[in-house]
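thought: fold this chain, then report.
action: predict
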Amino acid sequence: MSAPAPKEQASESLVTVVVALVANALIAVAKTVAAVFTGSASMVAEAAHSWADAGNEIFLLIAERQGRRPRDESHPRGYGRDTYIWSLFAAVGLFTAGSVVSLWHGASQLTSTSAHENYVVNYVVLAIAFVLEGISFRQAVGQTRGEAATFGLRPLSFINRTSNPTLRAVFLEDFVALIGIAFATIGIGLHQLTGNAVWDALGSIAIGVLLGAAAIFLINRNRQFLVGQTVSPELWDRALTALLEREAVERVTYLHLEYVGASRCFLVAAVDLTGDDAEPLLAVRLRRLEAEIEEREFVEDAVLTLSTPDEAALVPAVHKHL
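observation:
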């Protein structure tokens, strides 16, 4: 069974989160100063967005640290699900501190008649923010492409399916941040051209809707992994093939793979071992095979049982149509 997520990927995820944290912290300060100086509703929304992102990166750093703790007697399948819990907190923070604040401030400014001065300040800050967000996004895209290639997936499809919640969060937050900067620029620009502050307020509302959609998506994906997300059919097929390639395994009649962390799975299988050993020796061989499987990077815990004679053997999909 090949290891789709070696330890180097965990280190890369940490780098991705740190880059995003530094970028968002700098951007949040700059946007806040611009928002106070100009009073732009869109800039207030962008400042709230960046502070929410910066706070979220702290949650994601905790997620990376907590999720990588080795398993022990009280947690035989490790602490990987902690990653989803802290990532869920980050997603909720994005919704409350980012989306709700942006929507509320935008709605409250719909009746504003103020005319902004110093539009240049907003444009300069947004341009700097775009560059910094672009640097962070480039790091996330680089990691995404590398890991997606392992599974033969397109980057966006991989982001939806990956078991790595920190990579998904940083990728989506940076992507949404770039779109949010475009919304803010359009809102401020139309305000400047028309003299109507409604456009600025609508920019803030658009950013709030965008953040809300991203947050709901992240919340839902983390929830799915927390309640028990099974692996993709392609990965399940690869695992079955790897089991059948072992000399000790005659056939496999049941196989279940469930994520218990980022690129870490709990494997349960019913197998028929080769030979005709007595029951005590079979138990020893099963435990030995479990230990061998757990040496793989992808498997956190493996539990094997013996197949009954009447159970049908599982066949890898690659062989079903031959």
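thought: worth noting. The two ends are 22 Å apart (CA to CA).
final: tokens above.
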